[in-house]
Design goal:
alpha/beta; nine-stranded parallel sheet; eight-stranded mixed sheet; 12 helices; about 30% helix; about 20% strand; binds pyridoxal-5'-phosphate
Length: about 375
Amino acid sequence: MSYISRHTKAIIDLSAVVNNYEYIDSLAPNSNTIAVIKADAYGHDANKIAHALADKVALFAVGFIDEALALRNEGITTQILILEGPFNASDFDVAEQHNFILMLHSAHQIKWLDDHIKAHTQANSHRIWLKVNTGMNRLGFNISEVPHIVSALCTEQQKNLVLCSHFSTAEQINSDKPVEQLTLLKTLVSQFSCQFSMANSAGILNYSQSHGDYTRLGLSLYGISPIGKSEATKPLIPVMTLQADIIALHQLAIGDTVGYGDAWQATRPSTIATVAIGYADGYPRNAKSGTPVAIKGKIAPIVGRVSMDMITVDITDLLESTSIDIGDNVELWGKHISIDDVAKHSDTINYELLTRVSKRVPKVISI
Ligand SMILES: *Cc1c(COP(=O)(O)O)cnc(C)c1O
């Protein structure tokens, strides 16, 4: 039996995804914009997001092959770039069979590639994306290794070569580091006359010289700015609205406390709304008293600790102008509440909040 009792849900606005993709794509008109849908499309349901974008996007990107196979099982036929590359020698067989492009970052993967080509004379491993370490020091070949690796590739592979790297500080405008990283990559690119891919969302917005042949659009696809509010990010529309219902109301007298640890105490007669979402749903347990939520378009603060299944909200001020009742719904983030505000009140970042919405929260398409 399929039955939903609790009304807590993440509403996914697919027209917003299309809007955001087309808008960011227009900022980099000479680049091919890759839609990054790893980590279940940053918690938005990769299957739904991929289907919404399938006729606009030439290339999707995910972290590893398992994520790409899940999309194939849902009928997505678009080419998929595997950002962390192969984890096993056998990944080359799977990649070939399913039209995945592997981003190779380490010598052990090149060895697997060589073995794969030796074993399959018909091998179609001609599209090679190589990751170069330009200063993130996480994945990628060091600059000095690249010439040797490229020269060992066959002519066909060299012809299709794409060199990639990743910014460590692209969200900062006045930083020398992105320019240094880009210069390092571009020097190699001109040496081998190949294509390149450098920019993530922040790189697309802040460093137009980094757009290159392919941009890798993650966060802003979901309507969120990695660089705060600006003219350039105004057209972005948040894709996810996380919401839950009020399931209880309590009148508190001065001195009464709310929730675990008695962490919040009423300093005036207060009305507290209990809302059916907690840290087991991915709402951050770190969210402090004062973190905003929206009820009927108006802002109210959460008070007391976040529980596993519930939060508590002080609606005293709202009641002066609005009637609020059990069953009213509360937006935790979305079009009224910026996920950035919630992140700031919780000592984390928007990326983490999005990707941690848990499995027990249904993701439903808005109509
Ligand atoms: C996740 C990821 C991206 C997307 O970054 P955003 O900041 O979300 O736009 C781009 N490139 C690589 C290699 C990634 O892992």
